[in-house]
Structures are given as C-alpha cells and as structure tokens.
Write a structure and sequence with these properties.
Alkaline Phosphatase, subunit A, globular, 10-stranded mixed β-sheet, Diphtheria Toxin Repressor, domain 2, 424 residues, 2 domains, alpha/beta, two-stranded antiparallel sheet, binds zinc ion
C-alpha cells in the first residue's frame, strides 16, 4: 500500500514537470527553400543516391500555401504568411491586404532580446528575406526595402544585391554594419553586425558559383557563429534560387540548389547537436514549375542529371559564338553522351539568343533544357508557381508542434510559441 502511494506520488510529480514546465527554446533556425515543392525534394533525393539531410528531421507535416488574393501564392504573400502569420495579397511584404504593417517573427525575436539574422542566395532585399526584415506594399520597391532593413537592424544579413545598397553605404556604416563582399572577407569577420553582399544582384546557382561567393552552407555556418549568444537568436535561411531554376524549368539548377540548401540544413543540425536549446524548422514558400516526375510508362531517369557540372544556361554561355564546339562543351560539362540529333537541335539556335529574366542563353538554353527534361522523362506544367501543399520538417526543442496538416500562417505562430512568445 505504501509503495503504491509512493509510485502514484512520483507519477504525479513527473506529470507536473512534463506538462506544466514546457520548455521554451532559445535559438531558432528557420530554413525556407523557395519553390521547393515535394517533387523538387523527391528528384533531388533520387539524384543524391536516395538521401537528404532534411529527411532526418524527426517531425514533418504539410502546409497549404494559397494567398489572400490567389489560389497560387507568390513569394511575397507566402513570405508574409511565414513571417507574420497573416495571409496577404500577392506582391505585398509583411503588410495585410489593406496595407497595415504586421509584426514579423524576426522583429518579435529581437524584442525578446535575441539576436537576429537572414541568409539568402537571392538579393537580401528579395521577397522572402524582405518579409522578415521590412514592410512594404510592393515587393518591387527594393531600394525602400533596403532602407527599411537598416532600421529593423538584423545583426547578420548575407546574400546578393549590392546594387540595392550601393547608394546608402553611409547609412550602412552609421548602423554599425561591417560590409563584406567576398567569401574571404566573410570568413575573417569574428564578431559584430555584418552585411554581406556578395554579388550585384542574385548570387549564382550553386553549380555556377564563383570562388569569391560563399555557399549557402558557409553563410549559414558563419551566421550561426556570429549569432550564438546567451539570449538566443532567430535566423532565417533561404535557398532562394531553387525557385528561379524551376521557373526556367531547369531540373539541373533545381536539383543542385536544393542539395546546396540541404547542406545548410546540415549546418543547422550540426549546430543543434552542440547547442541543445535550438529548434530547426524547414519548409518551402510554394512549389514552382509544376514539376512532374514521369511522362509515361512508370519510369523516369534522374541519372541523366548526375554528371552536370554547371546549369544548362551556363553551359550554353561557355560555347563559342557559332556553337561549333557545342558537342565538346555539352559532353564536358554534363558527363552525358549526347545524340547527333540533340547537338544539332542546340546548334540550330546559335543565332537565336533571346535574353530573358531567368535565362541568359535565351532560346538555346530553352531548347537544351527541354532536351534534358525529355531524356530524364520529367516535365513541367508552368513557368510560374503551382498551388499544391508543401512539406514542413522540424527537429529540436518543441519540434513536435510542426506536424499534421497545417497552413503556412500557422508556422510563425508556432515558432513564437516554441520560443515562449506570442506573435498575434
Ligand atoms: Zn517564384
């Protein structure tokens, strides 16, 4: 009888400890693959011999992505949902459809005494990072967004887009930012606020990255090193160009930028192993391109993509103006034996350079990319975004909040809850 009483008493104490004393987390690393739908993740995993670091996160769920204005969101409305918990009109940055600014999870974390940071492979003023660090009715106002970001004052901002800051460098130093423009300069920073702008506009795709550009994994590692402190931090990391490759229906850029993003997830996990007070959340803002794995006969051929050393667009740009070395260049940088027919199809576009937003090689890149998709037996429904649900994965303290069927607006609310804070 006495033993039974003791056991009951102990059970009660244990219940009390586990239920009432829910632990809030100190550090949050929120990683967003822009345009990284489930087909993008699947294809990248298969090309990478069946494994991804993000697969090892303990909890997962799905989130709906529609915006306040459209069944298919853009990155601004999706970023707003993921940063503020509010749906808004496509194109708007951390404001409601009527233009009212709403608090972002980064601003809330800062108020709580945590350090804050953003990392991206697009411009730091681009829609997704802007949604965490600025408020604007139009995503295109990147000069205003830059000014706004300096006021918000995140401790670390790393990515592309020097041209948006070029005219306000006095304000950058007035706000005590150390400006770095190369990988070595970034590596040499040991403490303090940092603005890293490694390219004029977007950073290059992972496969085409120059020696002076840090990888997304290196930027993430450095940001974690700079943000680590006793009060904790909030860091948002965006793999921003997965989306651009998918807009161009380029499976090569899509896969290798997703794998580069996965290495950033690995940096987050390595940090969390040594710093237990950490929550990692990985998701996408939407899926891009309507990527479908398979066109007929229950098969597709991801091995076609395995030997690529550059994106198709970059490979086209390496050819002589008359494309006379097309075969040599194609085989050297793709690791693939191309048929005469395919080489001729590419060569036929030598005079047909058509500059476009996502693709420097224009029509030649378009034709080459189409051949690659056909060989791999994969296809795309659109050169814009697509409306299906995307995955959310989480690990660390309070990661169990990120399971089941959720909406994108739930994510920052739950991140706040995990930190013991209230977003809205
Ligand atoms: Zn997009």
């Amino acid at each position: 009888m006495k033993n039974a009483k003791t056991v009951l008493c102990m059970l009660f104490v244990m219940f009390f400890i586990f239920s009432v004393n829910a632990e809030s987390v100190k550090n949050v690393i929120f990683l967003i693959g822009d345009g990284m739908g489930i087909p993008q993740i699947t294809l990248s995993r298969v090309v990478n011999e069946g494994h991804l670091v993000m697969d090892t996160l303990k909890y997962s769920g799905l989130i709906s992505t529609h915006s306040a204005s459209n069944n298919i969101t853009d990155s601004a409305a999706a970023g707003t949902a993921l940063s503020t918990g509010y749906k808004t009109t496509n194109g708007m940055i951390a404001v409601t459809p009527d233009g009212k600014s709403v608090k972002t999870i980064l601003e809330l974390a800062k108020e709580s005494g945590r350090k804050t940071g953003i990392v991206t492979t697009t411009t730091v003023t681009h829609a997704t990072p802007a949604c965490f660090t600025a408020h604007n009715a139009a995503r295109g106002n990147e000069y205003e967004i830059a000014e706004n970001q300096l006021l918000t004052g995140a401790d670390v901002m790393l990515g592309g887009g020097f041209k948006r800051y070029a005219k306000i460098l006095d304000k950058v130093s007035a706000k005590n930012y150390q400006l770095v423009k190369t990988r070595d300069e970034l590596t040499n920073i040991k403490s303090g606020k940092v603005l890293g702008l490694f390219t004029e506009s977007y950073m290059n795709y992972e496969l085409d990255r120059t020696v002076d550009e840090p990888s997304i994994a290196l930027m993430t590692r450095k940001a974690l090193e700079l943000l680590k402190n006793d009060n904790g931090f909030f860091l948002m990391v965006e793999g921003g160009r997965i989306d651009h490759a998918a807009h161009a229906n380029d499976p090569v850029g899509t896969v290798y930028d997703t794998l580069a993003f996965d290495k950033a997830v690995n940096e987050a996990l390595s940090f969390a192993k040594l710093n237990r007070d950490t929550l990692i959340v990985v998701t996408a803002d939407h899926s891009t391109g309507g990527l479908a794995l398979g066109k007929k006969k229950y098969e597709y051929f991801p091995e076609v993509l395995k030997g690529f050393q550059h994106t198709p667009d970059f490979i086209i740009s390496l050819m002589k103006p008359d494309f006379s070395d097309a075969r040599e260049i194609m085989e050297k940088y793709t690791g693939y034996k191309w048929d005469d027919k395919d080489v001729k199809t590419v060569m036929a576009e030598k005079d047909c350079k058509r500059p476009s937003y996502y693709s420097l090689g224009g029509q030649a890149t378009y034709v080459f990319t189409k051949i690659i998709n056909n060989k791999a037996m994969i296809d795309w429904t659109t050169s814009d975004h697509e409306g299906s649900m995307v995955a959310v994965m989480a690990d660390g303290i309070n990661a169990n909040l990120f399971t089941g069927m959720l909406d994108n607006t739930d994510i920052p609310v739950k991140i706040a809850e995990a930190m013991g804070l209230k977003l809205k």
